[in-house]
Design brief:
Low-confidence stretches: 159-181
Number of helices: 6
CATH class: Alpha Beta
Shape: globular
Number of domains: 1
CATH architecture: 2-Layer Sandwich
Oligomer: single chain
Strand content: 15-25%
Helix content: 25-40%
Strand order of the largest sheet: 4-3-2-1-5
Radius of gyration: 16 Å
CATH topology: Nucleotidyltransferase, domain 5
């Protein structure tokens, strides 16, 4: 698993010098993270680089990688369960959280999408009193031109193989619905 941190989040986690890293073979395991503030409240937003699937959690109290990974894993698990992708989380993502690498966030397209999600998050927080879970849920309903789908649909509908994102599906998954494997 690769977690690409913004400079702001890297400093908060006491990881100021991050190496560059090539994209991983499984895009479910490539994430970008950033720390943002709205009305003096810190939030951490983490998005998947291939699908822009977003999770948000409180930034207060997170001062090291252990705390960050715990909050990230819990938040992502909840979001995946909410959209019916709990199996993807348990089979593909959860095992990979035990060994992760930190890296810089070099892809300007993904950083741009993350900034768009942060702008929308701030707008939604200004309009409504949302928990981080409900905020992430609303952000995942956002249509992003970068991928041409809702992040939630892209995350669930990812396919293995040429043009896909290299997901390992459980035996027989999707056959009843006529999905390719």
């Amino acid at each position: 698993m690769i977690i690409r941190l913004s400079q702001r989040l890297a400093q908060k986690l006491h990881e100021p010098r991050l190496p560059a890293a090539a994209p991983g073979p499984n895009k479910y395991l490539d994430w970008y993270g950033h720390l943002f503030v709205h009305n003096r409240v810190r939030y951490v937003i983490v998005i998947n680089c291939a699908t822009i699937f977003t999770t948000v959690f409180w930034g207060k109290g997170i001062t090291d990688l252990t705390g960050f990974m715990k909050m990230f894993s819990d938040s992502l698990s909840d979001q995946c369960d909410e959209i019916g992708a709990g199996l993807i989380y348990r089979r593909t993502i959860a095992p990979a959280t035990a060994s992760f690498r930190l890296a810089k966030a070099p892809d300007k397209h993904v950083v741009g999408c993350m900034n768009e999600q942060i702008s929308l998050a701030k707008f939604l927080l200004e309009e409504e009193d949302l928990s981080p879970f409900h905020l992430a849920k609303r952000l995942n309903e956002n249509l992003l031109l970068y991928i041409g789908l809702h992040p939630r649909q892209a995350f669930i509908g990812a396919k293995r193989g040429p043009g896909g994102i290299g997901v390992i599906y459980p035996e027989g998954w999707g056959k009843e619905e006529g999905r390719e494997q």
